[in-house]
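TL;DR need structure tokens for one chain.
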Amino acid sequence: MSTESLAAKELRPDKTGYFKYRLGVYILSTIFVCVCLIIGLGFANDFLAKKAGFSISVWFILVPAVLFAIYSFLVIQAKYSKTKYTLYKDRINFHGGSLFSDFENELNYKNVTRVSLILPYMENYFCKTGNVLIESAGATETEIVLSSVSDPKALYNGILNNLKENGFQLNMKKLIQVERPHPLAVFLQTGQSVLYALFIIAWILGSSDEKTGKSFILPWLLAHPPVALLLGVIILIGLTIYGILIYFELQRRVYRLFDDAIEYHEGFLTKVTSIIPMENLTDSTVKQGFISKMFGLYDVNLSCQGSNQAISFLNIANGELLSENLDRHIKLFSARTKEQVPEQTANELHTASSQAISGTAQPQTPASAKKLIDYDRTSTLELKMDALKSWIPIIVLVLFFIVSIVFLPRAAQIIAAFCSFIVVCVMSVFIIIRISKTIYKIKGSSVEKTFCFLSRSTTEFTFEKITAVTFKQSILDQIAKTHAIIFWSIGASQPLILQNVRITDSDKKMIMAKCGIHDKKKNEVHLIAADFSFASMICANLFSYSFLLTLLVVSGAVFPQFIIASLVIVLILFGLSFAFLNMYHKRSNLRFHDDHIQFTHGLVSLYHQCALYEDIKDITTVKFPMTNKGLLQFNIAGESLAPRGNKSLNKQPGAMFLNFAFKFKHADNIELLDELIDSILIMGLSSEASVKELIHKPSDHKYTDRVTARSSILNPLIKSGFYTIFALASILIVPQFTVFQFPFWANTIIISVLLLINVIVAIQTNVRRYSIQDKRVLAKSGVIYKQQITVIFDRIDFINSQQGALNKLCRNGNVTVNTAGSSKPEIIVRDISNYREFYDELKRVYN
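>> reply
TL;DR here they are.
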């Protein structure tokens, strides 16, 4: 395949590699499992014949195996027949599906972060096919895998050529540095892997019976020496082969840094070659553990634009040099442009904005108005952790220990004082090390945090990839006059935090200017202050207060003697809550400038957050019931890793990432605000007069619907109806086979709740609306709390359409909209009948 044939070329997987090879693997695996199960069944039948007098037929294994083989054949056949790749000059379309589902994904080349050539050993050896993996700045769902294609190397090179035609340099002519894992580290890591495998084998052999607590495998092996010897030889050979494979797998890794890309090779049997364009790299982290520091080895981690897009160069000798070279070349490719609309008169802006919103014309910006974002690349600053702020927790702890010891019995005071002294000493040593060994540097184009004691860790964010900056002052910071500065980056899984630093107002403005944010009063376009009231507090927390009121009424009915005391306590807490929230929201405001937004809020802890408009990926508004106030949320590009096990922090099941977001509550006239802010982001309004024009004449600035859709209530009703039928069947059938009988009142409650759930599902689904308008796509939902999510077209990174088995049954489908740096879609258009029209129109306008 020639690289010239990639433009507007439709490709299919190779039938031998995709269909025949996969089917053969499934069949051979099934046969192997069946043989093992049949052998085990023979031993089990001997035992059952002696103990229970019966045996299990081999058909209990063969029939499921045959059914699984037939199902595998049908699934692979369906996947092969539906898989199709269409390569255009600026994007790739991937059509696929399975036995009962279909999907279509589209990826623009401009959002690609990595291209990999994967040659699976067995498949490539027998079928001469391979895979090409294309990753983008969005979630893992945005990856496109061109599976089992013939001549994969030519396809890989052709895609790289297409990337070059779409703005990526990828000349790869100037080699800067070559690195590979250190031989000593490879040997140690191989030994570690073998020891882990040996530990698992020993744990299995030493496993004991739950009842007796004695091992049953080792005694049996000792009683049968030939079997034990054979097993030992097999384990020894297996560990040797495993160690050799691990060693060569690690030893074959090679990292090459060019002036415009990174190329790395890995793999012993299955070979992988990847190219990472320098344009979409964001941040770097250098780590050196205690043992690695002894041998002069480093781990260098890179972040790409996207969620969980990390690249690791492990156990290399010249880690510092590699990090310096990476940072220098990332900065060369990190300039971002932004069109700034010059100030216009109200009449001129009215005409331009009306045309832009109605779709009759594009707002034109003079060439003179186009300029690079003004990043301050000259100012530098070195910061250290403030000693006073760092020692305040120790001082508070000492006072607490002193007060606590005074009230202890005399016999326990000496022991408590000694233990407290040890704790204070340990914490003091820790704080001294932390203060003296932590350095923060604001460089020309990046911010760096370094800690070096027994181990070393250096994290560096490039300012052009930073999407938001937060200045935080806790109550202790306010006492010590220090700040915590939090930088969010589109590629990093954690923010970079400069803790306990003392900065002046000029330092603060300089740091903002380094991020391209210039705090000038004359550039302020609009100010929104929180409009908090008692009524809005009730409306914002209607469900919570209703639950508390119900709980109070029920407890009063059950314990009437405590009703007065409970009511007084609730009223006091209610009053304190209102007073606190009233003071909090009086300090909350949003300031819109010509190119960025500033969010100030907080009472005990004070926050000042800033972000450029171009880093706002979507806007969410929630209208509170019985009022025109609501929640205004700006989702910023990038995500942070959630605390381990805290999955509730993200709505997506199993997800472990949190969005960066500015959440502004109790904003008045919430419906108009969404239109206003979208207009600011789309057209770059640059004067207070133009904003007032939009506010005073909102009817003149309505967005025109191109395509509208609504969710079908049939899909969720089928799902909830299935569970309802199952529950009703259980109520009717279970009593027929057991002595347990459901009381009549319990049956009534269960049936009523099930019917109520179905009604709620139908109502919630019926109000879901989706529309593609000029310049944006939006989703509306909610009955009591009405939510609207809007994404501007130029923030869209990736879209796809999907039709599952239930969608096929109901004749509808889904469309997802993703932005850069997200692990989940911003908008999921669910169960709409015109999903093909919606997808095609969105694909046309966002490109």
